[in-house]
Amino acid sequence: MNSTVTISELQAQTPKIIRETERRGFTSVTRHGKIVAVMISNDRIEAMIESMELLSNPEFMAVLKDYKAGKLRFKEVTKDEH
Question: Which fold has domain 4-40?
Fold first, then answer.
């Protein structure tokens, strides 16, 4: 199934399209060939909100900047190390 459906398709196949939206993350809805709405899965919107919260955190952004500049390295932690 495409990630774009018409309003008529949405009306006729709502349960199926919602399942596909959950699987894909989003579905665009068109009217006369123009996107008029976007359905976003709960998992996708929660991830977007979490990303926005992190990006608005000055401490996180400072650490990210240092990491991108090569000033920080991360070490994998195994179960035995915690």
Answer: YefM-like fold (3.40.1620)
**What dihedral angle (degrees, nearest 10) is formed by the CA atoms of 4, 8, 9, 14?**
110
* Spans of all domains in the chain: 4-40, 43-71
Enumerate the β-bridge partners of residue 5.
29
pLDDT reported for residue 72: 84
Q: Tokens in use for 54?
A: 């992190």
Q: What is the pTM of this model?
A: 0.68
Residue 81: half-sphere exposure toward Cβ, Cα within 13 Å: 4
For the chain, percent of residues with pLDDT exceeding 90: 79
Pure H helices in the chain: 7-12, 14-24, 42-55, 58-68
